[in-house]
Amino acid sequence: MGDTGPAIDALQQRGEAYPPPAGMATYAVVGDPAVYDRAAADPVGWWEDQARRLQWDTPWHTALDESDAPFYRWFTGGTLNVAANCLDRHLAERGDRIAFHWEGEPGDRLHITYRELHERVCRFANALRTLGVGRGGRVAIYMGMIPELPVAMLACARLGAAHTVVFGGFSSEALRDRMEDFGATVLVTQDHSFRAGKHVHLKDNADVALAGAPGVRHCVVARRSGDPVEWTEGRDAWFHDLEQASSPDCPAEPMDAEQMLFALYTSGTTGKPKGIVHTSGGYLTGASATHRMVFDLRDDDVYWCAADIGWVTGHSYIVYGPLANGATSVMYEGAPAFPSHSRMWEIAERYRVSILYTAPTAIRSYMKWGDSYPKVHDLSAIRVLGSVGEPINPEAWEWYRDLIGSGTAPVVDTWWQTETGSMMISPLPAISTLKPGSASRPLPGISARVVGEDGLDVPRGEGGYLVIDRPWPSMLRTLLGDDDRYVATYWSRFPGLYLAGDGCRVDEDGDYWLLGRIDDVMNVSGHRLSTIEVESALVDHHAVAEAAVVGRADELTGQAIAAFVTLRDGVVGDEALIAELRNHVATLIGPIAKPASIVLTADLPKTRSGKIMRRLLRDVSEQRHLGDVTTLANEEVVEEIAAMATVNPHQED
Ligand code: WT7
Questions:
Q1: What top-level class would CATH report for the domain 24-444?
Q2: How many whole angstroms from 565 Cα to the centroid of ligand 1?
Q3: Plot region of 516 (φ>0 → left; ψ -120 to 50 → alpha; else → beta)
Q4: Helix (H, G, I), strand (E, B) or coil at 576
Q5: Domain spanning 521-647, CATH architecture
Q6: What's the predicted TM-score (pTM) here?
Q7: What does the alpha-carbon distance between residue 642 and residue 236 come to, in Å, rounded to a whole number?
Q8: Which of the ends of the chain has fewer CB neighbours closer than 10 A, N or C?
Q9: Tens digits of residue pLDDT in 397-409
Q10: Which residues line ligand 1 (CB under 6 A)?
């Protein structure tokens, strides 16, 4: 927990409220508000009804097993195969339906049907089998947004093996640590990925990572750029060679509902990333049910989640949820502004996208680039808009609805986390009255509260800690290899209550307003990074004696990383060193973790007990009034830092 307590700066509520579009409820997936009460009366039964929408090989005997809480288990006794649910069961009725309209960044396109995807998954699953992957196997995936990425994930699921996808923007060190921690025996990667017109050298990074991860015996490489890459005979194999050499016949393994489907690493308040474990039956139930309800999914929808599969949003709402629902999706490889600021709207127009899901950071960028870009495109097919990753400010919310949603599309602001697996607090577009900046209320079957330090509910209108007070099917099951940390991180602050780590306020109508993280975790462009991770990367540099990192408010990215660094004696600090330090962080973690600003200072503000006062640094970074510093050991430092912070405010790339 941070030194600040909950950051309860309530967002300004501007008072506007938007009722659902007239008549929408009549044909909606959820059109009757009574659903909330029905689900609340029997939440487990409600989730059983959702789980029955999936195809089970063996029915469960116990819907929710709480005997070993907080290690909850869902649908025990049941078996199913996640890939069969995403592919096979659609073949008879909608095999020729498009699963993905895929757009490459250079402009190449593929339109992949469910039948084609099924065949590729079967072949690649057989290929993985020849590399020793079977039930309970572990595969790491380090790729950009190419079709081979979902193929690899689903192939693992088909075999009953678990995957961990490492975001293609992470460094070789980050990849190595995750592969090691996960216990991967196979890595699936690609030669290069395209990002904003550049080549990202994934295979080169993978080679460096593999040198430090002896447990990984095979490296499968998808060809994307076609440019030459280093090759280790006996270890490396081409994705397409393996695929072609393998049979398209591959029975799906019936797996226990509680079998690990994947782990995804996310930042915590201590240095080591946490491997969030998700299982099969409950996870797929949550991802598919929320995808259908929250976006009001219909048969003729074209759905686009403009996230990266390397994050949980892509797992749940590009791959597993939409495919389980038999949806047609757009999948885009590249950067949103490449080659022009029209890219997203061009794609949305081409496929007549009707549901769009993206992050406030992207929305604010488009807003900044100007209305002219979306305005020249026909976005009239859009009927539901989604937002995720961080609180969305009312200006961006209204711009999104007006410019992208033709002034009529409901905006569903969906609050959830890597840990929750699927959406938790969100409007239902046909029945919720929307308030820009509020995520509305917990979805049917979800129960969330806001409590104070004592664990008791705070009065309406007051800020406190957001907790979930009932288990839900897609919840994380543990942290990989660290049950104690799972209990300590999520279940110890308030026993029996899941601590989300966010501040929240519930208004008079029962609508939830998320207020940002309460711990030392930053949210940069909707991605979580811990201050400690970035600090460790800085201190790793030989010139650095000590470092403190905070997230400061940033108009575009939500938060930007502000670093304060004291150098070792005798080291001269200059612009070149600052650039070197930023690159050092990029090398150790990835470009996303590069501090936006670094202030070199002779000392850091500390409490008498030696704790760095992050709140104060945050205030300095946001150039707020410095507040009470009487508990400071070295008061003069603050003045000095404040002066520096104003001369060195922002060093974006
Ligand atoms: C944290 C989770 C969930 C997928 C993307 C991020 C923040 C997420 C919202 C929202 C306010 C939000 C929270 C949360 N967050 N969505 N709609 N409104 N805050 O996943 O990396 O696990 O981060 O993102 O702080 O705890 P993640």
A1: alpha beta
A2: 28
A3: left
A4: helix
A5: 2-Layer Sandwich (3.30)
A6: 0.90
A7: 52
A8: C
A9: 999 999 999 999 9
A10: 266, 312-313, 388-391, 413-418, 439, 500-502, 514, 517, 523, 526-528
